[in-house]
Amino acid sequence: MRYFIVDDDTASRRMLKKIINESGLGLVIGEAASGKESLSLVLSTQPDFVLIDLLMPELDGIETIERLRNEGFLGQFIMISQVVNKEMVGEAYEKGVEYFIHKPINRVEVTSILKKTAEQFRLKDSLIQIKQSLAHIVSNEKPYKQRDVKEIVISILNDMGIVGETGSDDIILMIEILMEENEHNGQLPPLKDLYEAVAQKFKDVDVKKESKAIEQRIRRTILTAVNNLASLGSIDYTNPEFEYYAPRYFDFQDMRNRMKQIQEGDQKPSKVKVNIRKFLQVLYLETMDKYYQN
């Protein structure tokens, strides 16, 4: 991945560059000390990601993003900020910012966020290439093209911000197995059977032990989806991803409770219930619907 850093704080730029280089996350191809200075540099280098400070003199982060978008820049933005302001954060999301790195800068947080964004970037790029390739395939047998199951599931998980999470591969494989068998009429078999079916796809593993590990990975991944959607909803109740996925895949009262905890800045939020069966059932039905639709 190619990164460009925009921050008026020299120490922050130096630290971010060091973390990226030492972690092998990619290459920092440029940096700027202000939004105004960054405009021509970003447009000429066309990085994959711009790490940009929210508060800067002359041109702040949000204004800089807007200028770059108007000039046709298609890369992604990661906001750097020590300010937690609901209105400003909401505006940043509207401009296309997907993630925030908080100041003071923490190596673990930066590494985690950049790994997630890089994975999503690669998957989105793969999806684009798949769609472009399939667009040129003309079938004489079918008046329409069925979408690939993996492509469908990745797209849905990506909307919830959990592509790249540890359990996302398990979920994708599970739905592929269900679609291949095509014998459940849209209803899930016992979860235990599903975990074992996925575990059996791995070589040289203890199926029972791996089944339990799969369950825990999926549980953590679904919990991440809850937190991601609750964060979106707490900032903008009309966010399209929140509006679509929150009431379908989750207990909405639990979602509202998590949103309230986020809005109140609860440092020790209560545990959120994770209904794995409901999540997988809805995902299975939605995948079937998208796969067979004209």
Automatic annotation (TrEMBL):
InterPro entries with a match to the protein in the record: CheY-like_superfamily, Sig_transdc_resp-reg_receiver, ST_Response_Regulator, YcbB
Pfam families tied to this protein: Response_reg, YcbB
The keyword Phosphoprotein appears for this protein: yes
Key words of the record: Phosphoprotein
Swiss-Prot/TrEMBL GO biological process terms: phosphorelay signal transduction system
Modified residues (4-aspartylphosphate): 53
Coiled-coil region: none
Gene3D superfamilies, per the entry: 3.40.50.2300
Response regulatory domain residues: 2-118
Name by which UniProt lists this protein: Response regulator
